[in-house]
User: Which sequence fits this backbone?
């Protein structure tokens, strides 16, 4: 499974059937007064604030995949409905009350799906343009429902299924569980059986627990010691992306999304072996290479960046849908005198130190240690950000070649650059979203080329040593 822009999806023309959750006419009132998580509250206020400021931000996450054989639309509709009913975060309707973000949770049995036939699309370009427009119009942080689904149906051929979500109810890892869960439920329903799915756990409970733990802490709390040291070394909480992207302070820009393959499967395995030989893991060698690439392109001798980590394992909600991400600071040397082994070990030590201080939510850190920037609806300046995921480790990965799953991330505007790195059975891939300025386009092209070349050189060395 890769992550790339929706418009790059290889698909065929077909007829579109679309579903959206809605409240049943005979529904009883849901559970009200629940508090949103810190991520959700900040996301909502940023979107709302950007609109009030006349610089509207918007975003969505989507997955596409195929279901095998002649599609059973009734079974697929039942699978989508089950997804919304099982995961209460998809039934949350948000409202700002008394300065905080509250959510009402609609009851599972109060949800049904509206079904609309959207017509036939005669070309892939027309189809993908329609889907992109639908996601932009239909996914709105400030309005429920916060997800939609559909299928592109072709006579005698597999259907392409799509599901799109606002970030306030999902994250990238959630998308992998969505694919597996919908596929499993679809297969069961198409056989006339009930799906056998384990208890998923709830994000609303997670948000409540998070607020109970961290709402009252102060800037001098001992759990913020690692962040305070990082901020002192960095000159602030936010590590600046370097080299310069040519963005003006206080401005956001349209986003350019670029994706590609860095290594094939054999090269990725060789690079991983080289990392393990130095006592590290693949993502550590990758992050070390990113750090040296940035230095070569005009960056600094010490890499400082933000790194998202999943909170699912720590909270026992492994297969739940929600924004289970904390963002943590990492720093390590990337000076020219270090060899690959020294770089990897530096990342390993920095990562282990980072994970010892993974408790406090990033949004609370932002509010407590950088209050002067907290009311902003975007980063104060381009921020260094690195994300990695190995999709082979998720449920259903053995079926990915047949399902052809893909993750698509879209954002309307940005003042920086974010890069996601994804490993699958075919190798190692990247997707970068960044502010589309002339300088940024040139800088990112150089970074991608240097990174690809450096990784392939390391992989080639690993292949030679393995032989």
Assistant:
């Amino acid at each position: 499974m890769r992550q790339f822009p929706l418009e790059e999806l290889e698909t065929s023309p077909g007829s579109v059937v679309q579903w959206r959750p809605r409240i049943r006419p005979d529904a009883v009132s849901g559970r009200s007064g629940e508090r949103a998580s810190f991520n959700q509250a900040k996301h909502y206020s940023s979107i709302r604030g950007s609109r009030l400021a006349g610089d509207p931000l918007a975003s969505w996450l989507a997955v596409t995949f195929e279901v095998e054989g002649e599609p059973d639309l009734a079974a697929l509709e039942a699978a989508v409905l089950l997804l919304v009913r099982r995961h209460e975060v998809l039934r949350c309707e948000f409202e700002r009350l008394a300065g905080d973000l509250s959510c009402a949770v609609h009851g599972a049995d109060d949800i049904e799906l509206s079904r609309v036939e959207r017509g036939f699309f005669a070309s892939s370009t027309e189809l993908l343009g329609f889907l992109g427009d639908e996601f932009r119009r239909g996914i709105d942080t400030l309005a429920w429902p916060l997800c939609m689904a559909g299928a592109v149906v072709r006579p005698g051929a597999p259907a392409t299924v799509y599901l799109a979500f606002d970030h306030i109810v999902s994250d990238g890892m959630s998308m992998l569980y969505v694919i597996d869960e919908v596929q499993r439920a679809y297969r069961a329903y198409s056989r006339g059986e009930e799906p056998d799915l384990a208890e998923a756990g709830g994000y609303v409970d997670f948000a409540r627990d998070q607020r109970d733990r961290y709402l009252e802490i102060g800037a001098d709390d001992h759990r913020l010691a690692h962040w305070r040291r990082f901020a002192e070394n960095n000159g602030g909480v936010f590590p600046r992306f370097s080299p310069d992207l040519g963005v003006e302070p206080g401005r956001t820009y349209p986003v350019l999304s670029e994706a590609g393959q860095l290594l094939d499967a054999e090269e990725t395995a060789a690079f991983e072996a080289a990392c393990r030989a130095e006592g590290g893991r693949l993502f550590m060698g990758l992050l070390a290479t990113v750090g040296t690439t940035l230095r070569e392109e005009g960056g600094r001798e010490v890499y400082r960046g933000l790194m998202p980590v999943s909170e699912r394992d720590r909270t026992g909600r492994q297969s739940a849908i929600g924004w289970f991400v904390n963002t943590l600071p990492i720093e390590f040397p990337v000076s020219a005198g270090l060899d690959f082994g020294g770089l990897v070990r530096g990342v390993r030590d920095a990562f282990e130190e980072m994970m010892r201080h993974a408790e406090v939510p990033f949004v609370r850190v932002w509010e407590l240690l950088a209050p002067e920037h907290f009311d902003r609806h975007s980063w104060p300046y381009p921020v260094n950000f690195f994300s990695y995921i190995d999709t082979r480790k998720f449920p259903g990965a053995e079926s990915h070649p047949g399902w052809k799953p893909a993750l698509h991330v879209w954002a309307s505007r940005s003042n920086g650059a974010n890069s996601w790195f994804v490993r699958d059975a075919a190798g190692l891939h990247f997707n970068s979203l960044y502010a589309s300025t002339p300088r940024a386009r040139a800088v990112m092209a150089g970074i991608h080329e240097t990174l690809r070349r450096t990784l392939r050189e390391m992989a080639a060395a690993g292949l030679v040593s393995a032989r």
Summary: The longest helix spans residues 438-466. The two ends are 29 Å apart (CA to CA).
